């Protein structure tokens, strides 16, 4: 039985009533991030509902006593580079109960779908410490289907450790044209080494980071992440966690192979210490991202990817003004 098209799957998801609001934001208010304004003003026209208020020419508006909006020659054929961390830690459980690679793949699907609608070129650099998948930016649905399937097959619980800095260095060496670089990783990254590589990429490209949150090891159903990791959207049901069926006797760390015995999960002191360490790590990661001037968002499951990406695009757009 043939695989269903990943672009068709994400297109169906975008059409669901529950995510139409996020889709409208991506196609409307946040279109400048994807389409670009260009550097040349084409003409001026009277403001109409739906126009970007950031494009109002206030001097011309004062002269005409009516709101006047600048219309730019749009920059087309944007190059988008997906940087996908496929280290074995990405096959752990997300805060929503799904595997983190499932959430990461939906992020990649959404970026590819939006780029396809624009006719933009999309490339990918994905991998871990032992292997790298690289496909140059191209347009067309066939290329995107191949790209997404290749990324899907790269996720493997037996893969090597993550090495985000290696992927970013590859982008810096191989991508000469200014591009939008979308990094997909987990909440523990970027590390200090990753941040240095991210800063180098940031000098040449526009960069955004989407982080997938880990499950709470001490949650009754391995569910939501701590509140400190909440994303930037106003979604009322962040993540809508998926309950794990059956009793959870022990939790195994996918990287080290160690298990967390059931009796430790009931120790309040251990639970508080882990939560504090996780919150401190989260603050450190955010500080690194702010230092290099990169916008980021944390997603918990496939259910909040669209809301959080809409919020991320909005912040990235405002930061460029």
From TrEMBL:
It comes from the Bacteria. Residues 46-215 form the DUF58 domain. Pfam families: DUF58. This is DUF58 domain-containing protein. It comes from Cellulomonas shaoxiangyii.
């Amino acid at each position: 039985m043939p695989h269903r098209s990943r672009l068709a799957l994400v297109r169906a998801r975008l059409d669901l009533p529950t995510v139409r609001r996020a889709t409208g934001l991506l196609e409307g208010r946040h279109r400048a991030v994807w389409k670009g304004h260009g550097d040349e003003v084409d003409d001026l026209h009277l403001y109409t509902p739906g126009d970007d208020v950031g494009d109002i020419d206030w001097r011309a508006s004062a002269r005409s006593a009516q709101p006047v909006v600048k219309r730019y020659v749009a920059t087309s054929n944007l190059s988008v580079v997906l940087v996908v961390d496929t280290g074995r830690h990405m096959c752990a459980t997300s805060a929503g109960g799904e595997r983190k690679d499932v959430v990461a793949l939906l992020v990649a699907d959404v970026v590819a779908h939006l780029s396809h609608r624009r006719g933009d070129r999309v490339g990918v650099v994905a991998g871990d410490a032992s292997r790298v998948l690289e496909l140059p930016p191209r347009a067309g649905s066939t290329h995107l289907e191949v790209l997404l399937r290749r990324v899907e097959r790269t996720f493997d619980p037996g893969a090597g450790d993550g090495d985000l800095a290696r992927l970013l260095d590859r982008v810096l060496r191989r991508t000469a044209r200014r591009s939008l670089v979308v990094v997909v990783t987990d909440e523990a990254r970027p590390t200090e080494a990753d941040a240095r590589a991210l800063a180098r990429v940031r000098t040449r490209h526009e960069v955004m980071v989407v982080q997938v949150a880990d499950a709470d090891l001490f949650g009754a159903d391995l569910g939501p992440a701590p509140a400190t990791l909440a994303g930037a959207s106003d979604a009322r049901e962040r993540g809508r966690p998926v309950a794990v069926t059956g009793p959870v006797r022990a939790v195994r760390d996918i990287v080290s192979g160690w298990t967390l015995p059931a009796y430790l999960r009931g120790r309040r002191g251990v639970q508080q210490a882990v939560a504090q360490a996780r919150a401190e790590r989260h603050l450190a990661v955010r500080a690194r991202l702010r230092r290099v001037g990169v916008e980021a968002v944390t997603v918990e499951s496939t259910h909040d990817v669209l809301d959080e990406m809409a919020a991320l695009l909005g912040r990235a757009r405002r930061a460029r003004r």
